[in-house]
Amino acid sequence: MTASAAAVRDEPVRVWGGRLNLHVKVAGEGPPLIFFHALSGLTWEPLLDQFAAEYTVYAPEHPGTSPGEPRAIDEVQTFWELMLVYEELIRALGLERPLAVGQSYGGMVAADLAATFPQLFSRLVLLSPAGLWLDHAPIPVMQMVAGPPGDLPRYMFAHPEGPGAQAMLAPPADPTLIPAAIAQQTWNIGCTTKFAWPIPDLGLGRRLHRVAVPTLVVWGRQDALIAVDYAAEFGSQIAGSQVEIIDDCGHVIQADQPAATWTTISKFLAT
Amino acid sequence: MKVSLFEQVPYRYLPDGFGDQYSSAVTPPYHIVDPARMQESLYSAYAELMHGARAGFDGIVVTEHSQSSYDMSPNPTLLAYAVATAAQAEGLDIAITILGRSLGKTREPLKIAEEYALLDCVSGGRLIAGFPVGLSYDANLNASLPAIETRERAREHRELILKAWSTMEPFPWNGRFEKYGLVNIWPRPIQQPHPPVWIPGTGSPGTLRDILRNDFAFTYLSWDGPKLVGREVFDRYWHMADEMGRDRNPYRLAFVQVAAVAETDERAEKEYAEHLMALYHGGLGAIPGTMMAVPGYAEPAAIEAMLRAGGPDGMLARMKTATFKDIVDTQVAIVGSPATVADQIEAFVREFRVGNLLIMLQNGSMPRGLTEKNISLFAEQVLPRLRPIWDDEGWVNHWWPRAQGTAAAAGADSRPAGGEA
Q: CA-to-CA distance for B4 and B62, rounded, in angstroms?
């Protein structure tokens, strides 16, 4: 059973001394799960429906990425402030040690929250997270973000022509909505890269030892944005963590290999 | 009106087809460079500016860009300082305009305050201080600063620089981006509280409002000529001036125009077309659109409006494929005999009320000899027709330097040699 799009509700939450109105998409029933999205913003995708079948999914939109409130990003000046904002949000929502899932940039956010506040989450699932840096495997954030739009799919997917990738890359069906959609996504990347530019390394590697909850790290072997080399790095720095590599799979693992991704995650959650 | 010689510093020997293969910003490959030709390209820019100063231009103008093959001017203060000191030595009374140090790009705003002040002093109070936000590729890719903070950073830096110039006591600065315990720069500008401030931009309503509120001058830096988007931007500016209670003093407006002058129209095309097209195909036209607006640099409403309009209105997006006829018909470049060039410039200057004209006469691969011919012909046969344009209206140019004394006398040490210090 999956939640239909209509079952996803928008929950505005005022935090940060009243200065910031965060929008959280909520769906499903069960124990709390908080999902941190990647650079380009939140889209409600099949993976979230899968989670919503077993959990109450809370998916916050990064400050500034909610339509109509672009300058909300100005209220969050540093990544440290972003950590505090999300910690406030989790308290404001009344979530007791939710399961945290973060993807790419969102993985960096989730991992640093878990390191900063070791009691905040119950478990941590990191899907090809950013946050570390290896000189032999540079992460081409700038090349991807400022390069030709036509190059984007090859950073994201091992199979740009596959159904998962095509669903993510598809423009709105109504052509009159396309300019607004492109503008919003471009701005979203501006909001998230504020804390990941030009190199998404804000010292997470010096803090990862503080992560104290069961952690799963999942990577696609053909990841062209954050190379699979980083999987072992996260694995070795988070004590007791489990690392799973998915074959024939790029950066957005749930698009390239949806079945294998779900199997890997649900096996971890069942333990 | 005031007419200044505007010059960028391109590498003049780009291989054929450069713009089809490479970007002219951020990633142009350095292996194509011949060191001797690099030296010549850089020195020619200086020599041509001096040629213009001697030929009678009212000022010289330089810009800042890093990691670019079309303007190798990572710190334009250096070139401007060379021209300013040489002009002093020769007694040339020219304004020195920098358009300018990029405020959204710098990590050291007080260096800009100091260097501009130094230029104002050494030139005897002849500096015009340009305060651009900076291009996205320069601020967000070359300097790698987050795009979404570019404008906020520029605003703080401008405020800090203006305060550093005119505050006589040391002061602390606790900004969002900069923190200094004691600000007390030496020297401070001769022109107090500050040299004339020109704000280069592409004419967004927010920028224009800020300029008029602060009584600065707007410098429309588009390379699109007056026809393509000029009317919209200029009309917006003057209407806004009316609404905000500012007069229609033409000196509130500066404009950059590319021009090429020869004895006849036919000869101008023959001599200049190839070099102009090198600018459009391999220089300005070879900056990818994605580098001009890194995500976060422009707000969603602005991006959406541009997409709905079918892309940028100007020539930049299609410069790489433009023909010489496109360029000339749209007046992106004004090319021809002295009469042709003067007629076309005079018409738009009067129509749009441009008081400060910045003329770009070296373009792309144009060699020094041809550039100096262009400068001489313009100075001798076009400039005299333009200079008196606004005289009959009697405006004062409040946005021109308030130089003290003659150029030659300004730096002289009047103390006797061998006397006690």
A: 10
